[in-house]
Known about the structure:
By secondary structure, this protein is of the alpha+beta class. The protein has 2 helices and 5 strands, in the order αβββαββ.
Amino acid sequence: MATTPTMLDSRMVRRKKEKRPDWGIPKGIVLLATPEGWRHSVLTMEGGMLCGRLDVPINTDPQDARAAAARMVTELARDFHDADVEVSWDPPREPWSWTAQVTLAAGTEPAPPESEG
């Protein structure tokens, strides 16, 4: 039985150049230990928020979870905004909740937003 070629079979599919994300440069992190796993909220300089599950096992040590969250935010800032950031964790107020301040690294300026033209 012959198969009909699909677009994926017959040629390479290319993505359009992606525009910068609508959410802005990170300025803070909230990390929560929940019974279902580690959750995060990333606050942005423009007032937005990106929330989700941290991609670590549920029984990950809090110090390792904080390191994973910081790594995620620094990679997002670098990949999507061409900016280097530094993450500084605040002393915890609760045993299941941590906050961090995210600042642009010294000498770093984010890339200007691309025009929609």
